[in-house]
Amino acid sequence: MSILLHTCCGPCACYTTKHLLEEGLQPTLYFYNPNIHPYQEQKLRLEGFRRLAAYRGLPALVEPGYELEEFLKAVAVDPQKRCAECYRIRLSRTAAKAKEMGFKLFGTTLLISPYQNRELICETGHGLARQYGLRFYDADFRPGFRESQNIAKELGLYRQKYCGCIYSEKERYYREGR
Question: CA-CA distances (angstroms) from residue 4 to 55, 157, 165?
């Protein structure tokens, strides 16, 4: 069975794609991440995505453009709820693309990160699956997080230090009084 896999970056896809292939699924990787800032960070993650897809021999789709302004408009209203909105934006586009392309199943590499809200991702994914008449693949990839990082390191993939949005970049680097 084929699956359209929203892919945030190469490192998160390392273990995830390995797991899916072992399960007998055929992933098509899909890069749509308007949350990533700055643009140079977006380019580094896209390069890692492409390199991982080539390494695994998997089809890869890249959503054209860089919709940072739309993302910021959606999350600036209430930055405390930005993650929920970010999941909705990216998974909505993935579900719509899956429906358009005839996939019955979609998922996301976000489910590998111990730093993401797994329950909220799954709730969002399952809701969108119902809306689009699809199934959401909600495997818990977190046990493979360290393995995924090690594979990425071995492959020389860029490994980021924050989730991607401007808010998480601030949380990572800005400290009051410094």
Answer: 18, 22, 23
What residue has token string 């924050």?
A: 162
Sign of the torsion angle spanned by Cα atoms 57, 63, 65, 67: negative
Average pLDDT over residues 12-23: 98
Q: Name, in order, each residue with C-beta under 8 angstroms of 147's C-beta and a sequence gap of 6 or more.
A: 14, 15
Q: What is the separation of C-alpha 1 from the centre of its chain, rounded to a whole number of angstroms? A: 20
Q: Which two tokens stand for residue 47?
A: 């390069």
pLDDT surpassing 90 at residue 162: no
Instruction: Please give the mean pLDDT across all residues of the chain.
Output: 94
- By the 10 Å C-beta count (0-12 exposed, 13-18 middle, 19+ buried), 82 is classed as buried
Domains and CATH numbers, the chain: 2-173 (3.40.50.620)
